[in-house]
Design a protein that fits this description.
Pfam families: DDE_Tnp_1. By secondary structure, this protein is an alpha+beta fold. It has four helices and 15 strands.
Length: 301
């Protein structure tokens, strides 16, 4: 069985009134109803007096919205929604990784779980792997310490022997877990000046941190004989197509904009719409009732 995580952004039905923590949007005097969250506003701050549970959704640097996030779990082959949830647009308790675990909490058999970078956290991987699920979650992109330099994938980390080998072939020991996040560190010495490794000052070398809850653990790194490959970096085409289709169905006919105020009512609406779309999809797949039992026609099953 397969499951795919997605999320989509929704807006309240009416334009929110200004509240403390908001200021006119760029190139606006405030009279056109366009506002933005004030820079420096505390996380979780109320952004609307009309809908107090709405939160600021930081989508991109140029595209900002206030409202809620709809989280979806779907079966990619049929496009059926297996679980949905609507949460405020911001807050650690509403993060994709937290909601993603809730969406798969009722799965009683192992599934292949596909998701994007937002779901790629150490806690998600550890929890789902302990439950027997297989994860195909795209890891976060890596950035070298210096332009054109090495990244974490270029280091060979062996947690069994507690050693780390750098691209230049130097091997140093990996320390015992320590600190709040139980990090294990490896400190490298100085290489030739032309080695693109670190941006540290001269004679400082490079410190390499690693810990079990890292967003990109050793199991997601490319094997030594395939340095150009990014393991789990590409989602299968079926899962990608399935999640795109599920989001398009959900927001079709203007349903990206919510009709109600508050999390409770909008979450109920989301579940109702997902159920209606599931019924429509089942009928398309040939759902029939025979001898008091529902079944899909053999041609579509």
């Amino acid at each position: 069985m397969e499951a795919t995580w997605h999320r989509t952004w929704n807006l309240p039905r009416r334009q929110p009134c200004r509240s403390p923590g908001q200021e006119p949007a760029e190139d606006s005097d405030g009279r056109d109803g366009r506002w933005r969250i004030t820079r420096g506003t505390a996380p979780g701050r109320m952004v609307s007096t009309v809908d107090p549970e709405a939160r600021h959704v930081h989508k991109t640097r140029t595209h900002r919205q206030d409202g809620y996030k709809a989280h979806l779990a779907t079966e990619p082959e049929t496009g059926l929604y297996t679980a949905v949830a609507l949460r405020p647009g911001a807050g650690a308790e509403h993060h994709e990784a937290t909601v993603g675990l809730d969406l798969l909490a009722d799965e009683d058999i192992p599934v292949d779980a596909f998701g994007d970078t937002a779901y790629s956290t150490g806690e998600v991987r550890h929890t789902l792997q302990q439950a027997g699920h297989r994860l195909f979650v795209k890891p976060a992109p890596l950035r070298p310490a210096v332009p054109g330099g090495f990244t974490l994938d270029d280091f060979d980390i062996d947690t069994t022997t507690a050693t780390v080998t750098c691209p230049a072939g130097h091997t140093v020991p990996l320390s015992d877990p320590g600190g709040q996040h139980l990090q294990r560190k490896a400190v490298f010495g100085i290489c030739a000046p032309d080695v693109a490794c670190a941006s540290s000052a001269p004679n400082q070398g490079r410190t390499h941190p690693d810990h079990p809850a890292s967003p990109r653990p050793a199991c997601l790194r490319p094997p030594p004989d395939r340095p150009g490959h990014r393991l789990a970096g590409r989602l299968p085409a079926l899962a990608t197509t399935g999640r795109t289709r599920a989001v398009v169905w959900l927001v079709h006919h203007g349903n990206r904009r919510l009709r109600y105020r508050g999390t409770l009512k909008n979450n109920a609406w989301l579940h109702t719409r997902a159920a209606a779309l599931n019924l429509r999809r089942l009928i398309t797949l040939g759902l029939t009732r025979t001898n008091g039992a529902w079944a899909l026609s053999p041609a579509h099953a």
